[in-house]
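**User:**
Everyone, produce one record:

**Assistant:**
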Amino acid sequence: MQKKKFMIYHRDAKKGDPAYSPKSHSAPYYEGRYVKGMEEWASWYCFNKRDDGTYEAELDEAWNEGSHNGGGTITVDIPQEWFSLSYDSFLEHVITLASASHFGFTVEDLKSKKGLKEFFGFKDPIELVRLSDEHIIAFKEEMQEAFQHGFEAYNKDAEETNQWQVLPDEDFYRSLNAEGAKSYEAIDEDGQRVGGAILSIHKTAGELAFLYVKVGVQGKGIGQAIWRAIEDMHPEIEVWETCTPYFDRRNIHFYINRCGFHAVEFFNEHHPDPNMPEQFDQEDGLFKFEKTKDKIQ
C-alpha cells in the first residue's frame, strides 16, 4: 500500500548540547537504556496518507553513535470522524496519538508547520487578496455599513445614530494610505467578498486598523477566519495592536475570546489616544488590545 508522508522532526538531544543527558529515557511502549557513546537522540512525528484516503499518525524514535542504531515506532490510525472537526480541534485530538506529547511535540508545533493543513485536506473558508483600486469604494461602503450596524445593534436611539457616522471617510482613507498599510479583501469559496481588513506593518509590529465582516454573513466564523489568515500571512509580527469602540460588545468578545487579544488601555475624553486626540470631541471611548507572539496560535 502506497503512502504519502508528512514529517515533523525533533532533535531531542546531541552530545555537548545543554539539553543532552546520558540518562535512560522511556516511552509507554519501551523502556530505554543508556547507549554508550550515544551521540544523538531524535524523534519524528509523522502523518501518513494511504492510497485509500485514510490517515495514520506515526511516532519514530532513534538514537545513534554516528548511525541509526536503535529506536522504536508507534503507528495509530487517525479516526475518520475527526476530519469533521475544525482544523484547530482536529490538531488537539491528533497530538494525543502515538505518544507524541510524551516526546515533546505540541499543538503549536503542528500549527506552525506549513503545508500540514493542505496535507490533511482542510481548506480555509476564506482567502485574503490585496484590495484593488477598483474595489476601494465598495470595500469602504461595506466596512462602514458593518461598523454602523454594530453600533446600532447596541444603541436603539435612532436620532443619535443618525448624527454619528461610526467610520467617517477620512478615518478610512487615513488608514488605507498610512505608512506600511496593507489592505485585504476576504474572498469566500464562491468568489464573493465577505469582509476584509486594513493593517499597518512596521517590521515586527503590526496594527490591525480595521477588520469587518459583511452585513448578512456575520456570525458564521468569517471574522475569526480572516484574523487567522492575517496571522498566517504575517508570521514575522511579534506584537499586534488594535482598538475597538466601547459600545461594541460583539467586537470585544471577538478580540478577547476568539482571537486571543487582551485589553491594555481605555481611551476616552479623560485619556485620549495621543495619535487621534480629535476623535474624542464626544463622550465615547476605545479599548486598545494587544496580542503578543507567544499568544499567537
Remarks:
- Helices lie at 87-94, 107-112, 116-119, 136-153, 158-163, 169-176, 222-233, 249-258.
- Confidence is low (pLDDT under 50) at residues 19-35.
